[in-house]
Amino acid sequence: MARHKKFEAQEESDPALDISSLIDVCFLLLIYFLVSSTIKPRETDLGMALPSAQPSDQQPDIEPLFIKLDAAGAIYTGTGNSQQILDTDTGERTLPLLKGQLDMYASAAKAAGSKPLVQIWADGGASQQRVIDILNALAGVGINSVTFTDLVDP
Predict the structure, then answer these.
(1) pTM for the full predicted model
(2) 63-148: CATH number
(3) Residues sharing a CB contact under 8 Å with residue 71, sequence separation 6 or more, in sequence order
């Protein structure tokens, strides 16, 4: 008689999914998106020359441009009878009318050989985002001398 050997089937362990390559792919995707993303400059990166705490005895070479921001978010330039309203839509963050006015003021100041200076008055009820929008418009035109002031000719 022939000998028959009985082989016992080896017991298989629970099937498992090897995720080591999946982790490598995730890290590669993370590196790709970090390298390919664009970094926007923050508002703190704007090179604004804010005034010091000590008042200056020197008069500026050119008459400063006065910008008024009211509680509703409307932006005015000038004082007294020469005051004109520019941007009233608070949803528009680029401030196209103010940028045009600032561009004309900056080019006139540079033509006169002086440094443009802007004074900003913001109402206490105005949103901080609107003030940041004004500062961004100033930086976009290249004006970096900014002063926050009290209301002139209320």
Answers:
(1) 0.62
(2) 3.30.420.270
(3) 123, 124, 125, 126
